[in-house]
Automatic annotation (TrEMBL):
It is found in: Membrane. Residues 1-40, 60-94 are annotated as: Disordered. The lineage of its organism: Eukaryota, Metazoa, Chordata, Craniata, Vertebrata. It comes from Myiagra hebetior. It is a multi-pass membrane protein. Keywords: Ion transport, Magnesium, Membrane, Transmembrane, Transmembrane helix, Transport. This is Solute carrier family 41 member. GO terms for cellular component: plasma membrane. It comes from the Eukaryota. Acts as a magnesium transporter. GO terms for biological process: metal ion transport. Residues 141-275, 355-498 form the SLC41A/MgtE integral membrane domain. InterPro entries: SLC41_membr_dom (IPR006667), SLC41_membr_dom_sf (IPR036739), SLC41A1-3 (IPR045349). The gene is Slc41a1. Belongs to the SLC41A transporter family.
């Protein structure tokens, strides 16, 4: 009977896999060495039956059976089988520009229509009493809408990476990731919502020098309640999207973050408007309601902290993941201050409907790119490694947008989606008679210029920031997207406000900017 050898696998630099024979199968000094083909021949040249054991050594490298396609070596490397160069990173994703665009297009449009709906809601509620008399609520809008970048998009990117590298393949691993991450985002949502209300009070007090304790408590209760409920709903949606994407053979990186934003803006803004309006109505007759609501949600914090702390998948983020979400909230609040100062002027009331759209589209596109680059790097190693694909210095715009690698290709695709996407969204707003602005040619030119410049800046910053964080042992899934979406809010709001001011100065009366 043929003897059986147990064989392990070892990855080589050129992608080949050669067997290693255990020590008890080879004599003396040859134990543990790589087996050659001749070692598997019997004494008389007969074949030896080999039992191959599955190895998980490359689990982080290529574990994308159905969601991703393996990308072979580039054409100039395919013939090079030399092993002198040492280990190479795992194969990147093989996706054409068409396949990237096809997967991104539907979620992008869905997310865009979500921001259009949010803009329509903001255009309506800006005339409510709570927005008229407690104008600091406007400062909360970008900060709380930015929670999708601080929390939901970060959650989507984190879970997408985990799914792509095989950390959610078993029910036990899946349940562990769900419970830990849901508890984590509830902790972050409550804390960020509370801090956002403080920032709104401070930013509202500095220009006017007026402070109202009742309005401060109203802002706190509205912000915390909105952040908690919105994060709970959107977190559950994100988990379902990522699990469904894996089962359908779609790359979660391409669809999870846009879908997180598609309902994120609308749900968050609707909750903020409804909760703040309801609490404002109770302010005079039942003043105790506002502090009670605020205290209730804050009292739940210890429960979520304990759950997240016990989960190894979220323990590190619980301790180290606060810097990006807090700084991002502060950046978004500055954008909120610009929005508050602008829409409070009757000449620029029409800006309200466009702000969630331009900010949402920019944030969605850069979040997709950051999530893709992060997954690409995770397939090469762990944070802190310096694979050949990670630049050691600030990349040039040419390498970001015009090189042949897959991330540059996706950047071009995402940038090309800006103009047709915004044209569709502007037409939708116009057909629904939203806003106070007529869509003239000069308005569309200024608006498109602001949108293109915003996305161009964001995609370039994403290329630099994700690689920079990776080289400093920071997981981009947890750190990059909050900064990028917050910068998107600030840049988008600033450029849009500048466009409205320029249009008003040059006297584009046909667009009714000041109506």
């Amino acid at each position: 009977m043929a003897s059986k050898l147990e064989q392990k696998e070892t990855p080589q630099a050129n992608g080949a896999v050669l067997p290693i024979v255990p020590g008890d199968c080879l004599p003396g000094p040859e134990r543990g060495q790589r087996a050659e083909p001749a070692d598997f021949l019997g004494a008389e040249g007969t074949g030896v039956e080999v039992v191959v054991l599955e190895s998980r050594a490359n689990a982080k490298g290529v574990r994308e059976e159905d969601a991703l396609l393996e990308n072979g070596s580039q054409s100039n490397e395919s013939d090079d089988t030399s092993t002198d160069r040492g280990p190479e990173p795992a194969s990147p994703l093989k996706e054409t520009s068409f396949s990237i665009g096809l997967q991104v297009l539907f979620p992008f449009l869905l997310a865009g229509f979500g921001t259009v709906a949010a803009g329509m809601v903001l255009d309506i509620v800006q005339h409510w009493d709570v927005f008229k008399y407690v104008t600091e609520v406007f400062i909360l809008v970008p900060a709380l809408l930015g929670l999708k970048g601080n929390l939901e998009m970060t959650l989507a990117s984190r879970l997408s990476t985990a799914a792509n590298i095989g950390q959610m393949d078993t029910p036990k691993e899946l349940w562990k990731m769900i419970t830990g991450n849901m508890a984590l985002i509830q902790v972050q949502a409550t804390v960020v919502g509370f801090l956002a209300s403080i920032a709104a009070v401070v930013f509202g007090w500095i220009p006017d020098g007026h402070f109202s304790i009742d309005h401060a408590v109203l802002l706190c209760a509205s912000s915390v309640a909105t952040a908690f409920i919105a994060s709970l709903v959107l977190g559950m949606i994100m988990i379902g999207v990522i699990i469904g994407s894996r089962k359908m053979g779609i790359n979660p990186d391409n669809v999870a973050t846009p879908i997180a934003a598609s309902l994120g803006d609308l749900i968050t803004l609707a909750l903020l408007s409804g909760i703040s309006w309801g609490l404002y109505k109770e302010l005079e007759s039942k003043a105790y309601v506002n502090p009670l609501v605020c205290a209730f949600f804050i009292s739940l914090l210890p429960i979520w902290i304990v759950i997240a702390k016990r989960n190894s998948a979220t323990r590190e983020v619980l301790y180290s993941g606060w810097e990006p979400v807090i700084i991002a909230m502060a950046i978004s609040s500055v954008g909120g201050l610009i929005l508050d100062r602008t829409v409070s002027d009757p000449n620029f009331a029409g800006m309200a409907v466009f702000t969630p759209v331009i900010n949402g589209v920019g944030g969605n596109l850069v979040a997709v790119q950051a999530s893709r680059i992060s997954t690409y790097l995770h397939m090469s190693g762990v944070p802190g490694d310096s694979p050949e694909t990670a630049p050691r210095k600030c990349p040039s715009p040419c390498s970001t947008f015009f090189s042949s690698d897959v991330n540059s290709r996706s950047a071009r695709v995402l940038f090309l989606l800006v103009v047709p996407g915004h044209l569709v969204f502007l037409y939708t707003i116009s057909s629904m008679q939203g806003g106070h602005t007529t869509l003239t040619l000069i308005f569309i030119v200024f608006y498109m210029t602001a949108a293109l410049l915003q996305v161009l800046i964001l995609l370039y910053i994403a290329d630099w920031m994700v690689h920079w964080m990776w080289g400093r042992d920071l997981d981009p899934d947890n750190f990059s997207i909050p900064y990028l979406t917050a910068l998107g809010d600030l840049i988008g709001t600033g450029l849009l406000a500048l466009s409205f001011h320029v249009l008003w100065l040059i006297g584009d009366r046909d667009s009714d900017v000041g109506d």
